[in-house]
Amino acid sequence: MRRKLMVAGAFSLVTALGPGVPSGTAAAAAPLPSSSAIPLGDGYMGAGYLADAESFTADTRQIEFGAEGSASTQATQAGIDVSHYQGTINWSSVKSAGIAFAYIKATESTTYKDPTFSANYLHAHQAKVIRGAYHFARPGLSSGAAQAKYFAGNGGGWSRDNLTLPGMLDLEGGCSGKSVSAMRSWILDFSTTYRAKTGRDVVIYTGPSWWNTCTGGWGGMSARSPLFVAHWTGASSPSIPGGFPYWTFWQYTDSGSVSGVSGAVDRDRFSGDSGRLLALANNTL
């Protein structure tokens, strides 16, 4: 997260971790301005969140667990997501603070690589923080396949080493002038290419508002991509997009504090215990 990019008006291995809620019909909403309002290189997880929330009608469904437990009692793992906006990070301190996982910005479009990615990715690994790379999507600039190839070749790869999560596709900040059908095709193109390059299904980061408007609450990715939902709230569980029955990761604030990181940092949760997180990393679920 950045402190804080001002964009348009102010401003996600499927893991069956509990019964979901049925998908409903997505509410209609006005389209957002294009994500081109965010300059190339300035994208990060949450860059378009507030603009999306103001310009869209949110799906207010919340995840519900069965008798085994509630969202507030189910085991979760603490995480963060970072980019060059966090500067130099002391990953040993991050690990000591109880952070189990992190997503680290790698790329945008087919030309930009985050200048701190290599150091963050290496040092998180050395500190035994389970980490993954993410790509800030630019659907208006090039094909999904082209961006997936660039991502996979510039930090978004995967290995079964107990410490590497599958790559993540960050979708937010407007529909890039694409129709619902064109956006679905772009996402599927990225996903198919990424899997061909790495052997893993990409994680999808998005908010309910963006997904419901730009894809029409599409359920076409729920059987292949874990959902990393953006919903900044103090509630015990997040709202989730149409088309996804449950969340795997949840970004619940953009203003967290963690030892080893200067200033505010996005805070995240994984919906499962440490064994499930390791299984997701190693593709053994």
Automatic annotation (TrEMBL):
EC number in record: 3.2.1.17
InterPro entries per UniProt: GH, Glyco_hydro_25, Glyco_hydro_25_AS, Glyco_hydro_fam25_subgr
Top-rank taxon: Bacteria
Alphabetic keyword roster: Glycosidase, Hydrolase, Signal
Signal peptide per UniProt: 1-28
The reaction(s) this protein catalyses: Hydrolysis of (1->4)-beta-linkages between N-acetylmuramic acid and N-acetyl-D-glucosamine residues in a peptidoglycan and between N-acetyl-D-glucosamine residues in chitodextrins
Short name of one Pfam family: Glyco_hydro_25
Family, per entry: Belongs to the glycosyl hydrolase 25 family.
Protein name: Lysozyme
Organism of derivation: Streptomyces poriferorum
